[in-house]
Amino acid sequence: MKTHLNTLFVTSDGTYLGKEGEAVSVKQGEERTLRVPIHMIESIVCLARATVSPHLMALCAARGVSITFLEPTGRFHARVEGRGGGNVLLRKDQFRASEDTLRTLEFSRAFVQAKIHNSRILITRAIRDHGDTSAGELESVAGVLSGCLRRATAAKEINELRGVEGEAARHYFSVFSHLIRSDDDLLRMDGRNRRPPRDPINAMLSFGYALLASDTRSACETVGLDPQVGFLHADRPGRVGLALDLAEDLRSVLADRVVLSLLNRQQITSDQFETDAGGAVRMG
User: Fold this and answer.
1) What does the mean pLDDT of the chain come to?
2) What are the distances in angstroms from CA 122 to CA 23, 167, 178, 204?
3) Which of 117, 166, 182, 268 ranks highest by number of CB atoms within 10 Å?
4) What is the mean pLDDT of residues 53-58?
């Protein structure tokens, strides 16, 4: 039977998820709001205070469907899943590669090259589709990213590569506001900021990146890799280095494009955000 690889996101407090035959039953109070056959989904992500029945957990574990609990901002809490995949030989090779300077540089170079390439493609598509007064600045940054891509390819050690990646990211985010077609002046950003984000765009990006990292972490664990043993991201207790490495390639392809689509279609507006006393901006 075909698996559709969908993710069920739970965003309402008080939601109850239970097992109903070979399906996931979603209820709000006494009302059933959704029923999804288990073979139709790959994972369940709870972004609110939700209750999951033990019977559903057992069904998901048996069918390879992970259940992830996150804060509304995307911060990871816990994951429930069945027997792990992969094999010990794969993990041992991963550990050896992480201790090998040349292999670490090789993998890291591939991550950075893909990230810069995809960022540049997003900008050049915006120039093609929405050429306007900002096209000159976008073209300039696209040229800078081309240079960063060549330097990343020629990098001889990991710190040099990280420096190129950081420079490319600064230039990319310096023109990100030009990709937003909304007339709302509040939907603008002055570079990337986080922990906490200080504008709506950065709040959306941080949320998207957190969801993406959760997915890449799940992908690592599904095949038996250790998500904490990375290459571009240095080892640190609690950091899922490999998951973050894999997410780098996909940021502009998935998270950034989703953010831009939501804003440019006016599906999200500035009045849907909240700012606390410390200046942190959160999605409402």
Assistant:
1) 86
2) 39, 17, 12, 17
3) 268
4) 92
As a whole number of angstroms, the distance between CA 173 and CA 192 comes to 6
Let me know: does 57 contact 67? Beta carbons within 8 Å. Answer: yes
- Of 132 and 87, the structure prediction assigns the larger pLDDT to 87
How distant is the alpha carbon of residue 89 from its chain centre? 28
d(CA 202, CA 30): 38
Cis peptide leading into 196, omega within 30 of 0? yes
Q: For the sheet containing 6-10, what is the strand order?
A: 6-10, 41-46, 66-70, 76-80
Q: In percent, how much of the chain has pLDDT > 70? A: 95
Q: What is the mean pLDDT of residues 102-129?
A: 91
Instruction: Look up the pTM and report it.
Output: 0.78
For residues 23 and 269, give the distance between their C-alpha atoms in angstroms, rounded to a whole number. Answer: 35
Q: Where are the alpha helices (DSSP H) in the chain?
A: 54-63, 88-99, 101-129, 135-154, 158-174, 200-223, 241-250, 257-264
The sign of the dihedral angle between the CA atoms of 221, 227, 228, 231 is positive
Tokens describing residue 84: 């792990």
Give tens-digit pLDDT for 248-263. 999 998 999 999 988 8
